[in-house]
Amino acid sequence: MDPMRELYQQLILDHNRKPRNFGRPEGTNREAEGYNPLCGDHYTIYLDIENDEIEQIGFEGSGCAISKSSASVMTETLKGKPAREALEIASGFVDLVKGDSDEAATSKLAVFKGVRDFPTRTKCATLAWHALRNAIENIPTTATTE
Amino acid sequence: MVKGHPLVYLDNAATTQKPRQVIDAIVHYYEEQNANVHRGVHQLSQIATSMYEEGRKKVARFINAGTEREVVFVKGCTEGINLVANSFAAPRLREGDEILITAIEHHSNIVPWQLLCQRTGAKLHIVPVNDLGELILGELDSLLTERTKIASFVHVSNSLGTVNPVREMIARAKAAGVPVVIDGAQAVPHLPVDVQDLDCDFYVFSGHKMFGPTGIGVAYGKAEHLAAMSPWQGGGDMIESVRFEGSTWAQPPARFEAGTPNIEGVAGLSAAIDYIGALGYEAIGAHEHDLLEYGTAELEKIEGLRIIGQAGDKASVISFVLDDIHPHDLGTIVDEEGVAIRTGHHCTQPVMERFGVPATARASLAFYNTRAEIDALVRAIERAISIFR
User: Fold this and answer.
1) B311 contacts B160 by C-beta, under 8 angstroms
2) Is B347 a residue of the active site?
């Protein structure tokens, strides 16, 4: 496949145009920011974790198609999942886009495999996931890919 | 070649490509002249010293400094501004004093002043910019108060291309008794600079943006200022005498060149100055103006494309945004077509905020670019649009 089409697959373009779970849900109890100071991509991830389960998840912010669609697919993937499992999926996703693993937790996440051919864009794909980790683990600092 | 395509390099505001003459000058230094400067009595050191100091004279002629002793070699524009901030401005500042810059500065002409404000309690004041990307000079006079102790203005904006009327700005500042620093990093590749005609107190620029090497730049300062300034970095070669009880400083410019300098950088910068001189600013300016007009017209034909920065007096920089396509995505897609542009905030985040965009795509042109390369950029943008829509 054309590397550009591989990178910008329809699912990514669709989530970029219509990001899912965009906004701050009611009653969240965790949040964390992700910011890339070199490019300006900036997101906030909101979570409501009850009994170790992600009951609500949403995000706000702006950035490129890769970062925004990654955040959007992340929210769809992790809603209803145990927080501990979400952390494992996040680690797996980072490994996937960095080329350290071929395993994706879901077919939607596998769509981001094309990012590995564009190393400068792995930071875009992983930004929201780093913020998610901080939110789950209650780390107060802004997550950054730099 | 880049990704199977001939490279179309349109990121000249970040750094320029180097002509053969510059590369040869660096190689020649290492093959034929390599020695440290100012220290050795042996012949090679004398040759290297002579080349280094001839480079200083060349820079002085290049910017029409009154004497080569007004030319300090630094790492680049950023270090030049830090030198002026630390050695010239810092001792003059007290709490409540003001430093005047503009709304379209590069981070290198913002952050050093902010650091100085933190140390001294001074405040930063900003000359605003209009929607075209031109400074609102009507506000300059009211911003120049009796508390203003220094002003630092960019000559040419890297993210908008605006050529500021620095001669007029300097005159107004000087009338208010305010010394002026000019950040000329984006000016020297495009237009002739005469520091005596401008009557600026300091003028700083980098070698690598004017076809020279990285890691070398110039801080021009009026002789009386440099003579009154203390060093901001200590080390070898900047001293007159060193005792454990205390040391005294060499005369400028050596006072501000502690340690072994970037000798190869001076060799390359000298060659770059010769290269620009052989081309002539008139020819450079005419070609770049044609490219700017052509590029602007061609890009404006693209539906949903908006150019940020449309000043009347503009250098060959075209910054733009596209509906529904983030600049980073655009940058990746056009790169796949062999077209190198810059995307992001260009180290001018306040400019992005002023124009309400997170980032822009920027095509910055040099004399070696062609209309055909602009056409390649347009085709690459159209490909991005076809992917996204």
Assistant:
1) yes
2) yes
